[in-house]
Write a structure and sequence with these properties.
By secondary structure, this protein is an alpha+beta fold. 35% of the residues lie in helices and 25% in strands. It has one domain: Alpha-Beta Plaits (2-Layer Sandwich). The protein is built from four helices and four strands. It holds the Pfam family Ycf54.
Length: 106
């Protein structure tokens, strides 16, 4: 089982209103230079927000939603500070309510 950390907001906010693509592109470049594996994903319409244990967070996120999910808690903290108006959380997967957290990762 792995722990995933995330930020979530409306899909329009994360993919249109904010320069998230630039931040993620820079992160990919940096990881490439460091020889590090990608440990984050942009997930459009994340099903994990509907899991019972994430209901308080999931119900607060406007739909359609999007999320950046990572195993790196510090990266998610950075995104939260950079983007401000996002929900944050974490979950363990796979679990009975979240069988494949990244099934819809893009």
């Amino acid at each position: 089982m792995s722990t995933y950390h995330f930020i979530a907001a409306s899909e329009a906010f994360l993919t249109v209103e904010e320069p998230l693509e630039e931040v993620l592109r820079e992160r990919v470049r940096h990881y490439g230079e460091q020889g590090k594996e990608i440990d984050f994903w942009l997930v459009k319409r994340p099903a994990f927000l509907d899991a019972p244990q994430l209901e308080p967070i999931g119900s607060a996120v406007p739909r359609p939603a999007a999320a950046v999910v990572s195993t790196d808690e510090k990266f998610i903290t950075f995104l939260k500070l950079r983007l401000e108006f996002v929900a944050t959380g974490r979950f363990e997967a796979p679990s009975t309510s979240i069988p494949d957290a990244l099934a819809s990762a893009t």
